[in-house]
Amino acid sequence: MRFNPRRIKVGLELTSKCNLRCGMCPLPVLRRPYEDMEWPLVEKAEREIHGLGLKLKWLHEMGEPLLYSRIDDAIRLFPEASLSTNGLVLTEEVGAKLLASPLKRIRICVDSINPEVYPQLRTGGDFEKLVDLTRKFLVQAKGHPLRIEIQKMRSRLTLDETVDDFKRVFDLKQYRNARVIEKTCEALDVNEETDLHGKFYGCVQGAFFTWVVVFADGRVTHCCYDAHGDQVMGDLKTESLREIIEGDRLVQMQAAFEARDFAQLPRCGECFKHGGESHAFNDVLTRVQNLPGVAKDVVRKVIDVRYR
């Protein structure tokens, strides 16, 4: 495959451990160990990723990144990366570590401000604790350049909740560095219609190779939906990142994808099981995927009619 760093987004899973077992997440049945990435591997990942001219987009994949003991050191290695957290370990101590680091953006996945709906989305979560910790962090980070995103989830369960409701709960008018973002629940677990998410048709990413995700054990996959590691390209413990993305394994996987041979690509098969095999259809998704972030979000909201 010809290497084009501008097309590639990179994720680094510091840990596959999590304090929740959310309804849309495959973590409860994860077919790989719950573990932290060893620090020397984090350092190698930094050399490999930045050495290829790539930038890290997210410091997580399946796990809760704030559970990683050296999260602030990891941020210093990847100051361009963002964090997404369920917020339940965002204590004053952890907040101080983050604010002393070069972190530029953190997303707190509140998802619902209805205390009866929240535990259906974030299984095992404590709604009152989350609201309290989030409010305290907003105060702690007031005036800091860190951009804080409070996530509102779009699903059948949250139809009656609005962005303004979220703003009122967290009194965001007094925090210039905080805002509410609205995201559709992603079907990371299974491609079926549920109360949390709809089914989809074809490659969610719009193209076969738009991501490089390094798992906590060092294995590398091409897709952020490949939670179990069914379509691994290589292993960063024993190979360089360039060897992995330019290796024969990826070429074989691309050929199988073009032929829609999902017997060799089980994760892709899950995404395509309801249709979407048309190359023209996926060309449209590719163009949407390549739009700037704000424009892409607008287009996705327009075409997403599942929760209206």
How is this structure best summarized?
The chain is of the alpha/beta class. It contains 11 helices and 9 strands.
What would your notes on this structure say?
Helices cover 32% and strands 14% of the residues. Mean pLDDT is 88; it is low at 302-308. It is an alpha/beta fold. Strands 2-1-7-8-9 form a five-stranded mixed beta sheet. Strands 3-4-5-6 form a four-stranded parallel beta sheet, with helices on one face. It contains eleven helices and nine strands.
Subunit organisation of the chains: single chain
Mean pLDDT across the residues is 88
Query: Termini separation (Å)?
Result: 41 Å
Order of helices and strands: EHEHEHEHHEHEEEEHHHHH
Major beta-sheet overview: 5 strands, mixed
Strand content: 5-15%
Separate helix tally: 11
Tally of DSSP β-strands: 9
